[in-house]
Amino acid sequence: MAASVLVVDDEPNIVLSLEFLMRQAGHEVRVARDGDAALSAIAAQVPDLVLLDVMMPGRDGYEVCQAIRANPACARTRIVMLTARSRDVEREKGLALGADDYVTKPFSTRALVERVRALLAADRG
Amino acid sequence: MSRWTIAAVAISYLCVLFAVARWGDRRADAGRSVIANPTIYALSMAVYCTAWTFYGSVGRATANGIDFVAIYLGPTLAGVLWWHVTRKMLRISKANRITSIADFVAARYGKSPLLGGLVAVVALIVITPYIALQLKAVSASVDVLAHAGSDRGGGILGDTAFYVAALMAAFAILYGTRHIDATERHEGMVAAIAFESIVKLAAFLAVGLFVAFVMFDGPAEIFARAAADPAIAPLLGSAGASGPAGWVTLTLLSMAAILFLPRQFQVAIVENVDERHLAKASWLFPLYLLLINLFVFPIALAGLLAFPGGGVDGDLFVLALPLAAGATHVALIAFVGGLSAATSMVIVETIALATMLCNDLAMPILLRIRRLDLAGRADLTGLLAAIRRGSIVIVLSLGYLYFDLIGGSYALVSIGLLSFAAVAQLAPTILGGMYWRGATRIGALGGLAGGFAVWAYTLLVPAIARSGWIDAAFLAEGPFGVAALRPYALFGAPLGDPLTHALVWSMVANLGLFVGLSLATRPSATERIQATRFVEAFSHAEGERAHVWGGQARVTELIDLVGRFVGQERARQAFAAHARARGLNPERLERADAGVVRFAERLLAGAIGAASARVVMATAVKGGDVGLDEVMAILDEATAVIEYSRQLEQKSAALEAASAELRAANLRLRELDRLKDEFLTTVTHELRTPLTSIRSFSEILHDNADLSAGDRRAFLGIVIAESERLTRLINQVLDLAKIEAGRFDWQIAPTDLREVVTGAIAATSGIFAERRVVLDAMLDERVPPVPADRDQLMQVAINLLSNAVKFSPPEGGRVQVALRGEGAGIRLTVQDNGPGIAAEHLPLLFEKFRQFADPRSGKPQGTGLGLAICRRIVAHLGGSIVAASPPGEGARFEVFLPYARGGDLTRTPR
């Protein structure tokens, strides 16, 4: 059964590439352009995994991450944070807030797809 | 008119005066003060107008024309200074319980008895002729009324001046020495003086009206007839006989007089109830001067017309004119006015001088005579009153003697000006002391001594010589025939009239010695403290910090001591009030701390002057057989401790200020650090974002050979666009860094702005079309070239245009571009119809990475460097860029470039 993936980023071209990669890997993909849109998409249907950009206008990635973790319906939802910030403290902050993985932009598409696959597989195994 | 009638009128008037004074004192005792009133205060200041004003102004006007006005112009100008200078003097005097001008000087310069004594002696020398002048005026007026000529007849007992002097002494003793403490004002005396001011003004106006409208057909007729008379006409034409230098001299002298004459100090400072009264006095008093001078010139001219040939002395026109017209009652009114002018001056001046002589001359000397053991006596109030009363008699006797022996030889005004010139010598010492912390006791002594010496040599000695007491050849040829030392032309300097000459030389000596010696000497601790208290009178709110006092005095002893001078009951009450004010229980006070000691000293100062109070306190707090000088040294040391702690306080305040500065600098540095950090983070983020898209799509293209042709094209398009974005960003960061570091390679050449703007419009036409934004271009056909870097300017224009597009509304977007010559340069305006810029963002708009989110999308667009670079480019070209955003009108950016760039165009890049 195909997993559902929510792509959250404010950069249209990055969203486009992530959407393409996830579809190609056989997932169901939905897209949100900012934090609020992401939360309402999650409320509508809980995804298996969220690809979550950190720096977004309005509600940023950390806040969205916290909101997801605070939602019991999303207990099994995996979160991969994507960021152009590369400092260790930010990575730690993301993981501390409950992210399952933390990927720095620019990323290797193959590695990203592999990480997503591994996270979803571990879930099912 | 018989002498008896005149005497009866004079005595009746003086009785009224006594009654007014008695009434004023009664009211004060009943707690309903009449002098706590700004109008009374202003009127009492009019003690400035003496018999010299009443008779002498007319006399001077007949001789010198209009220049008598300068003597009243000075005080009027000084009225402007009152709010600063006099108010400060008031503050200082109240805080230090100053009793006289001599006391003021002594207190400022370390409570120096020597200085106080010097000022007191000089004041006595200077004021005695001035008092004599009043007596002379009264005596002469009686003679005119009685048609008695110069024959006084009947020896001393037939002499009006003698009786006037005696009555004045009685008045001054009765109403000037009732209380000894300076805080007790002479309410009755002030009330009487204010009353006299009204009388003399009314009398002078009455005479003026009579002369102008009864004897003549109004002032116009007087002036017309005077102008027609060849003997008088010259008086009307000129600005006065003394010329511009004389005017300046008179104005300056009278300014000094209104501030420093002992009687002015007495009424304006010592008798002042409320410093706010100054505000009213500063316009009411000049108004008074104006009124009393209104008829001076008409009377002078009328006198010259009525008594051609100089048969009648101009000084007496005020009396002679009504007499000549047969109006004896008007002449009597004039006589009473002159009498009131003379008596008011004599009374106040005598009381002021007596206080000075007692506090600054007699007491310090008596206290230093150890054999008398004055400070040890039980009750000194009687002694003090006796000294004051004795001083009053001495002052008036001296005045009478001077009048009797020398007075006949000099015109009224000249004697007055002699005194003014001496009083002006106080100006550097007092004003310097109030505003210059560095003024020292030695400087003050030197300045005063030098100034007075020159004054005496150039004015006093010649005056005596003119009276025939010294060989008059001394004036013309100099002492021993040395021409360079002629009193009216020192060193042969051509300085105009004797007065100006004397003022210039005495001030040169005075100021030179005062400033020179002050700079050359170091002030003692007491001097430094007093200097601070005086100079910082407004900011220094009498901070009675309780310093530890090493002395032996008990509070009861101090009360006892002060009580001996001001009365026991009064002293007890004052100390109790002081203790309560400091939150202490007066019953439980035992050892006197420094605060109490200083309070006692100030109480004493109010009674016997600052310098004497110090000596008394010194003897009071001494222990055992310590000599007076040693005690003085101890007191000095105590004040030195206070001074030291004050300095420490200042130092720690300075340290605190320095460390606060350091903290602020650190904060700024940290802020800069943070900004730099933020800059790097932002740049990194901005670089990584396009890079992410490029890498992702490159990998997708690389890994998926089976992509459709459409996808392939689309993805490659994204890669190309993001690469361009990345390139632009890198270029901007580099440009900014280069411009900021001053290493940018500017290509300055005459540039056609129209061509640049057209180019920018072409370059941005793509995004305009894409966003369906309409562009209105209003470019002047021909604009002169400006010196600029074409490519950079193109960047600016493109940046502004693309910003405008970005912020245009999705529907109906419209951008207007205008280019037009304007004055010294060309203005480029780019206006959009978007949401505009919030007012709070406007000032930050041109800073690096200040990205303000598009209010619609919420997403900042662009690199955040565009406008920062624009501003730097435009600034480098000598122009300016501003943004405006009136509500509801979108945003407008205006670039102004001058035809001539400031600075060197050919400058090679660093």
Index terms:
heterodimer; A: 125 residues; alpha/beta; Rossmann fold; globular; B: 910 residues; mainly alpha; Amino acid/polyamine transporter I; Helix Hairpins; 4 domains; 5-stranded mixed sheet
Question: Helices and strands in order, then pairings?
Answer:
The complex is a heterodimer of chains A (125) and B (910).
Chain A: E1 4-8, H1 12-24, E2 28-32, H2 35-44, E3 49-53, H3 61-70, E4 78-83, H4 88-96, E5 101-104, H5 109-124
Parallel strand pairs in A: 1-2, 1-3, 3-4, 4-5
Helix pairs in contact in A: 2-3
Chain B: H1 3-29, H2 38-45, H3 51-64, H4 70-82, H5 85-96, H6 101-108, H7 113-145, H8 160-176, H9 187-215, H10 219-228, H11 233-237, H12 243-260, H13 262-270, H14 277-293, H15 296-306, H16 317-324, H17 328-368, H18 381-405, H19 412-423, H20 426-435, H21 441-466, H22 473-477, H23 498-520, H24 525-535, H25 555-566, H26 568-581, H27 594-608, H28 610-621, H29 628-703, H30 709-741, E1 748-751, H31 753-770, E2 774-779, E3 786-789, H32 790-806, E4 814-822, E5 825-831, H33 866-876, E6 880-884, E7 892-898
Parallel strand pairs in B: 2-4
Antiparallel strand pairs in B: 1-3, 4-5, 5-7, 6-7
Explain what this protein looks like in three dimensions.
- The complex is a heterodimer of chains A (125) and B (910).
- Chain A is α/β, with parallel strands linked by helices and 125 residues long.
- Chain A has one domain: 3-Layer(aba) Sandwich (Rossmann fold).
- In chain A, strands 2-1-3-4-5 form a 5-stranded parallel sheet, with helices on both faces.
- Chain A is globular.
- The mean pLDDT of chain A is 89.
- Chain B is mostly helical and 910 residues long.
- Chain B has 4 domains: 369 residues, Amino acid/polyamine transporter I (Up-down Bundle), CATH 1.20.1740; 118 residues, no CATH class; 96 residues, Signal transduction histidine kinase, dimerisation/phosphotransfer (DHp) domain (Helix Hairpins, Orthogonal Bundle), CATH 1.10.287; 156 residues, Heat Shock Protein 90 (2-Layer Sandwich), CATH 3.30.565.
- Chain B is 66% helix and 5% strand.
- The longest helix of chain B is centred in the C-terminal third of the chain and has 76 residues.
- Chain B is elongated and about 140 Å long.
- At the A-B interface, helix 1 of A face helix 29 and helix 30 of B.
